[in-house]
């Protein structure tokens, strides 16, 4: 069984994929264009400081969709020795390699001009199709969360190397 | 252009759709079954207190996918007079009526038994196909958020009627 989804817009980022990857933690600035057919769906969105973007990682290869266990490779960019990290299931991570290549990105809405949303903290490549936008409302903020030991250890190691980095 | 996505599992809830709807704010308890083919993707998930579930609202009708503006009808259940509410774009709301019927639900992971996740705070009907699971990590918690005036007014009205309800 399969379901069909369609792009409602796309990401514009003035950077190469490698440049976006290198900034995965803080994200980059960019513009989300919503296609004319869906532009009315944006009414009332001004005033939300943050939006949740669901995107389709169209550059994901069929073989990457068969991956079920990964090592958090993006941590290599932060100087973490990933040979010591455990291999974990893709649903325990934010890896782009997963059965359905869906990305969930929380962006800051800087301003809107019609059907163009200027945003911060994008971790999506130029041209990535957008499937949905939802407002970041108070119920999305879970104050008391717990993390597995393996994830806590990664956070600690990264913070030791980069004290000013925010949590991820 | 369309993309194809496939269920990795489904929701088991021992309640009718109407009963789930009536509890949309606090959510209900249920079990998320991940299909055997994807079960290895769950490794390492124990210890995360909360998970982000992306589901496909399979009961959404084609005509509901053409809706671009809505009134938050679920508020009627809380006694809000929705005739006074503004009609807003679907991307400014969590409405199930949207071009791609994707749901984003944050659940509390109570316990895992193999490929079965017992969870709290589900707002999905029994049988809803699951497309993806991501861990709720610190970066998903945005502390300083702003909301549009129309949304703030709804929150205030609901809180006046139901002082003990949490934000939504």
TrEMBL record, chains A, B:
PROSITE patterns: TSAA_2 (PS51668). It holds the Pfam family TrmO_N. InterPro entries: TrmO-like_N, YaeB-like, YaeB-like_sf, YaeB_N_sf. Signal peptide: none annotated. GO terms for biological process: methylation. GO terms for molecular function: methyltransferase activity. Keywords: Methyltransferase, S-adenosyl-L-methionine, Transferase. Residues 5-145 form the TsaA-like domain. The keyword Transmembrane helix does not apply. Belongs to the tRNA methyltransferase O family. PANTHER family: TRNA (ADENINE(37)-N6)-METHYLTRANSFERASE (PTHR12818:SF0). This is tRNA (N6-threonylcarbamoyladenosine(37)-N6)-methyltransferase TrmO. The lineage of its organism: Archaea, Nitrososphaerota, Candidatus Wolframiiraptoraceae, Candidatus Terraquivivens.
